[in-house]
Each structure stands twice: as C-alpha cells, then as structure tokens.
Amino acid sequence: MKKFLFEDSLNDPQREAVLFREGSLLVIAGAGSGKTRTLTHRVAALVQEGVPPRSILLLTFTRKASTEMVRRASELLDDRCEKVSGGTFHSFANSVLRKYSTYIGFPGGFAIIDESDAEDLVGLIRKELDLAGKERSFPAKKTLMSMFSRAVNKVLPVEEIVCNEYTHFSSEVQDIAAVHREYAKRKTLHGFLDYDDLLVKLRNLLTEYPEIRERISSSFQYIMVDEYQDTNKIQAEILRLLASANRNVMVVGDDAQSIYSFRGANFRNIMDFPNLFPDTKMIRLEENFRSVQPILTLTNNIIDQAAEKFTKKLFTKKLAGNPPVLVSTGDEKAQSLFVVNKINELMLNGINPRDVAVLFRAGFHSFDLELELNRKGFSFNKVGGFKFVESAHIKDLLAHLKVLFHPRDRLSWYRILALVDSIGPKKAQMIFETLDKENLGYKGILKDIFPAKLAKPLETLRGLYASFEKDKLSVFDMGEIALNYYMPILKSRFDDWPKRQKDLEQLLVIMERYEDPREFLTDMTLEPPNTSSGNSMEISSESARRLTLSTIHSAKGLEWHTVFVIWVLDGRFPSIHAIENEDALEEERRLLYVAATRARENLFFVYPRNFYDRNLRMIFSNPSRFLSDIPDDLLEKQFLGSSGFRRF
DNA sequence: GCCGGTTACCTTTTT
DNA sequence: GGTAACCGGC
User: Could you read off the pLDDT of A197-213 as tens digits, one per residue?
Assistant: First the structure.
C-alpha cells in the first residue's frame, strides 16, 4: 500500500486506525487523544488513495464538527475532501427522506418542526381532549413531549416510559397514550416530522424497502461516525442498515464522555457496537496530547470514582504544569469577580482571550458573569443555552415565510393569524380550515372567501401575501418584506422591541447567505445558530478573538489553554434534579469530566459558598460532591471572601 | 370571542 | 426576570 502522506505525524494506534480499511472498527478515544486528528487523517488518506469523496460518509454530532473536520482534511490534502458526504444523523435523514418522501407517506413533502412547535401541537391536542382539568394534574405539554421523545429514542412504548420514569403520572397513562396517538395522527395530517421522526422514518425506509437500502448503502464505501457514545438505539440501527452493503464502518467515541442520556443515548451502547458488527476490531487511544499531568491526574481521579469502571487510563508526556484549583467564594458576585479578575490577569500575561473558556451546567448560570464582563468591557461569545430561533419574534417572522412553502402548516398559520388584530384562536381556526379545505395556502388569503367581517382585519395580511406573488424574490427580499410587515406588530407587542429588531436584522444577514428559501428554513430548524455574542454589532473578525462562555454540552470536543468551570456547587452541579437518581448522578459526573478535560494548562473550579435559590427555596453551600473528597495535593483549595456590595 | 392585565411558576443539557 | 396559564371587562 502506498504510504499515506502524513503517516509519520501519528502515533501507533492513531496510524493503525487511519490505515484500517475493510471491515468494522471501534476506536475508543480518550479525551484529548487525537480523535478528530485521526478522523481527518483517515478521510484525507482515503481520498488520496482514490476513494470518491462522495462515497465517504462522515456522521457527526453537530454540523460545526462536520465542516471543521472536512476543512482540516482539505488542509491536509486538497479540496477534493470538501465533497465528502457529511452532517448530523438528522440532516442526513432529512436529505434522504426528501428524495423518498412518497415512500414514507408524505407525497406532498414535509416540514420539520422543532421542539417548541412539537410542544405547541401537543398542547393543542391536550386542550382539545380536555385533559387539563383543575382538580387533575395532567402533565404539561413539555412533559408530554419529553415522554414521547424518550419512548422513541429508547425504542420503548410510551406506557412503559410513563410507568418507569414518570411514576407520579402512572395513573394517567391511558390518556397520555391517547395524546401520543393523536399527536402521531396530526403530524401525518399536516405533513410534519419532528426531530425523532427523521430518525424513525429513515430507519423504516431502509428496513421496508430493500432496494432503496441497497442503493443507498452501496453508494457509501466507507462510513465514519464521531461521538458514538452519544448515539442511541435508532441511530445504531440506521448505521447497521447504511453499512449493509460494504460493511466498512468506523466509529469513534469515549464511553466516559457520554452526556446525552436525555436523548436516549446510553454509554453502554458503544460497547454493544461489536454485537452490531461481528469481527469488529478495537483500537484504544490512550495518550492524551492536551492536558498537563496535574490536570490529567485530577480528571483520571474524577472518572475513577464512577460507579461503573471505564476501560482505559490516559497518560501524557506533558509532565510539568499548574495544579487545578478549587476556589470557594463568598457569594455569586464574588464568583463572577474572581473569574473576571483572573481573566484580566491572564490577558496581562499575554494569553489570548480566545484561549480562555468559562463552562457551566446550564445556560442561565452565566447571567451574572455576563453582566460583570460587560461592565469591565470584555466581549465574549456565548454558546449553548439560549436558542435564538426559539424566541417569539424570530418564530413569528419565520412563520410568515414557512406557509409559503408548506400551506398545511397549521401551527404557523395559527401563529400568523393570532398576530392580526381582533383575530383569536377561534377565528384563526376557522380561517385555517377554509384555507386547508381547498389546499389553497397563502393564495387563499388573497381570495374573497371569508365572511365580510374579516375583510378589514385581514387587509394588511393580504397586502403581505400579495407582495410575495412577485417573481424572482431572493431569500433576503422575502425576509425584508416579512420584516416590514412585522415591524408594527413587534413594536406594539414588545417593550424591548429595539433589541428584538436587532435580532431580526441579524436573521436577514443569515438569509443573505442562502439561495433557496426552503434550505434556509430547514437549516433554521435542523442546525440553528446557537451562538450569541455580547455585542452582536461587532464584525466577525473580532468575534474570533473573543473569550468563550459555553454550556458543557456545547463545549464537547473543544479545548482551551485556560478553563473555568463555575457553579461547581452541590445542588447545581450535580443538578438537584439528578441527585435522586443514580444513573443521572453518574451522568453528572461524566459531564464534570468532560468539562475538566477541556483544559490544556490551567483549570479552575469555582463555587459560591453562600447561595440561596429563590425558586427552590433552598440554600446551597457545599462544593460539588465530585470534588469535595479529592486530596489537596491533586486539587488546590482557595478560600475567598464575599464581594460586599461593590458597584461602580 | 377577543384582549389586557393579573398571577404562578419555573429554568438542565440539544438535534 | 420572562412567559404561560388564568380571569374579568368589553
């Protein structure tokens, strides 16, 4: 075999994985062991050998990860690598299902609904079936939706999920199942697929139509899956079907970093991979290239205390380094001040802000820190937590566009109509039924088919949809037309409309990059932007230099010179919700492990000693149980006072 | 049936 | 501190 160009830059197990060819391969890759490096080198090696890029399928956890890997492979070799097939399981499912939509019972195509749309639909059904009685505590739409999703992702009946995981609702199991059935029916009726349906329908398509399975699976010579520890049973099944023709599958992951059980992932799944593909070869990457020894010693210690032992031990050659520190501060403000001051100090020592990250369990945990950073003039990028596209004003604007392409989108029509003066739920329903009966879509709004009483209220909306009749509108034009219509509504409904207007203008900037409005709408659902910057007006070259604030989930796979993990306070991390349940608690431990293994040189854990949670009406004062028993020589302890009421 | 004003009730994590 | 469910006036 011809030697691969960059073979010499790999260590032995990495090289073995890169050069592996026929059959199935499981790579257990510890944190910082060069997992991404191995994948990108393998992509480049395959392309170099003449494997057509399109016949390489690279499935990743986020689109960002996929584009980044493709970019790095292209850097190694050349831009043939750009043509590699890749994306998330969901985006891959979407593109396949669009092609075969008649086979899955959606001859007219489908629209993908995000979580909050799905919840709204469930809420509609919940109301219609009149289950929300006063005396009766029936699960909220959100809870119902999470029950349904868990059932799908764990491949279990809803009834079983309710009885095992939501025991306090087990008396309502019949009605919950009824809502579930109705939800499925409505989705078919309106041409909706939710996130879970994308996976389920793809699996069904590949199972029920052998000739389609054959065509698709033979088109992929090599399949690679990243972050395999966070896939669930349906995804494993899809993978088995996709690989049925060539059987060349490589999956990479780390069971100690499995943090998505709420999506049906199970850290044991990765060890089941050899059952899915007999004769699987296993390679372990155990050399950590990221962290200095003191950090690695600590992270090994954290994961060693897991209830279930993991199968590897990481080592590093970077011996010297600073010990990790656990800092306890008087209160929340002092926590923020400690972080800000430390960052300032780092920058004075020449550290680039982009090499620094602050990580936390949940998006809102950084609110106070954000205030403090703004006050001191630090700009930052925040990743995770808050979802731009789920805010009301963004959803409003998108709804007006969605119905152009999906006339049966009941949820969007209700949303649009509810914004019109003197139209409420009843009239919206009536208008929708009239449009839907003849499948008229937005063109129906232009016609004179409504009672005279509605003519006046519908006048401006009619004007909007008349403007969409013009030919040759760019995606940006459409956004601008919709925004012009929406601005008066925005001003009347939100006191903080200037801020929201900026968001909408930001949305128009995103729209400018698209040529196909359908693609834009799909991306907003499947791969929505989850980054916000402290100051969105700044140019993007500056944003590359910024400090990062991120949820731990969104920090997966990344690394920084210095990492702060804030709120390592028992009750917050592990979260109070996890303390009762042993599996959940173990996942919190892995989550902390993921956070800590992001650091190369400096690692700080911070918590306020004195914190009263107003909502929970509880005082928390102890450090995270995962850190409290670690000896001082592995984890240095610092004790700081309260902030007082220092303000400028 | 619509709408504006009130209160309660949260807030993991993401495709 | 933001929104979703609830209530009473029009």
Answer: 999 999 999 999 999 99
How many CB atoms lie under 10 A from the CB of residue A561? 15
Instruction: Give, in Å, how far the C1' of C7 lies from the CA of A442.
Output: 35
A634 and A295 in contact (C-beta within 8 Å)? no
Within 7 Å: CB of A361 and strand B? yes
The per-residue pLDDT for range A291-322, each reduced to its tens digit, is: 999 999 999 999 999 888 777 889 999 888 99
The tokens describing A305, both together, are 């205390």
Query: Which bin fits A559, alpha (ψ -120 to 50), beta or left (φ > 0)?
Result: beta
Helix locations, A129-267, DSSP H: 141-154, 158-165, 173-190, 195-208, 210-218, 233-242
User: What is the per-residue DSSP string for A248-300?
Assistant: -EEEEE-GGG---GGGT--TTHHHHHHHHSTT-EEEEE-B-SSS-HHHHHHHH
Backbone dihedral region for residue A133 (phi beyond 0: left; psi -120 to 50: alpha; all else: beta):
beta
Residue A236: name the closest of A197, A269, A201, A191 by CA: A269
Contacts of A31 (CB under 8 A, 6+ apart): A254, A256, A257, A288, A290, A299, A314, A593, A594, A597
CA distances from A539 to A241, A529, A545 (A): 45, 17, 11
Cα–Cα distance, A354 to A562 (Å, whole number): 10
Query: Does A123 contact strand C, using a CB cutoff of 7 Å?
Result: yes
Q: Which residues 72-101 in chain A have a CB closer than 7 A to strand B?
A: 88-91
What is the spatial distance between Cα A599 and Cα A563, in angstroms, rounded to a whole number?
5
End-to-end alpha carbon distance in chain A: 68
Distances (CA, A) of A387 to A148, A382, A500, A532, A540: 22, 11, 13, 9, 20
Which residue is associated with the tokens 């985006």?
A91
pTM over 0.90: yes
Cα atoms in the 13 Å half-sphere on the side-chain side of A98: 10
- pLDDT-derived band of residue A645, with 50, 70 and 90 as boundaries? very low
Taking the C-alpha atoms of residue A376 and residue A602, their distance in angstroms, rounded to an integer, is: 22
* C-alpha of A357 from chain center: 19
Contact indicator for A296, A315 with CB cutoff of 8 Å: yes
Residue A429 CA and nucleotide B6 C1' are separated, in Å, by 27
B4 C1': nearest CA residue: A493
The encoded tokens of residue A474 equal 């760019």
